């Protein structure tokens, strides 16, 4: 990585980490191809207690969004309530009543997946396709999020970087400071300390602790502001280890401010359109991090399928870790 040459660094890294053509010219799944039936059978064998931990934050108006690029928090509206039922205003016979509701929200306003049609590199989408031939006003015509509806179930691995580096950083809470760039060396050190092996086909979760800090201190600039996150230099690490998908507890997955002064989310630009990697953001990893530390185990069955919204480039998700 040459910090003085963002364009050159991005171009070189894209070539180094490209998976274009690896699963055929018609592929729509990218690295999700790495989660095989055999991987899922092995992951199911990790379930020992049956304990389930949700990794989603709440979907409500008290969310992190501040309107940037028209992203708002969910708006939940009741269209029928108990009041109408009490007064018999619903038109049903014999005392029958009920409640109904509707929600309006951007698909990437809370715990979510970035799909393969979300980010482009020089006008190219995943597998080298023209961006304009993939995502149109009708949505993602090729790699819409619905293609992954039955894919993202497998072995989850938590690397709790925030907890591991807490003593070194002298923090009261197990979390990284904003702007902390997580390097391959950090990831390897945490895996070794936790005694967990990162394998091909894994769904990798990286806990920084930033989400926990926002729940304690308020959202602040969580959405789009400074944050700990993965360094641009982790792209080859993710590529060489054949990670199937990766998620963090931050708004944008990668370290912010970004490591190039004149780039925007350069790691996204590598891993989504070139590597074909699904990215999860704004995952709540607090309870899972605490439980994994208590049990001294960091792998589990993870189920995190997106909503099959036809043509969507991202999706809300309620991921669950099953211990």
From TrEMBL:
<protein>
    <submittedName>
        <fullName>Cyclase family protein</fullName>
    </submittedName>
</protein>
<dbReference type="GO" id="GO:0019441">
    <property type="term" value="P:L-tryptophan catabolic process to kynurenine"/>
</dbReference>
<dbReference type="GO" id="GO:0004061">
    <property type="term" value="F:arylformamidase activity"/>
</dbReference>
<dbReference type="InterPro" id="IPR037175">
    <property type="entry name" value="KFase_sf"/>
</dbReference>
<dbReference type="Pfam" id="PF04199">
    <property type="entry name" value="Cyclase"/>
</dbReference>
<dbReference type="InterPro" id="IPR007325">
    <property type="entry name" value="KFase/CYL"/>
</dbReference>
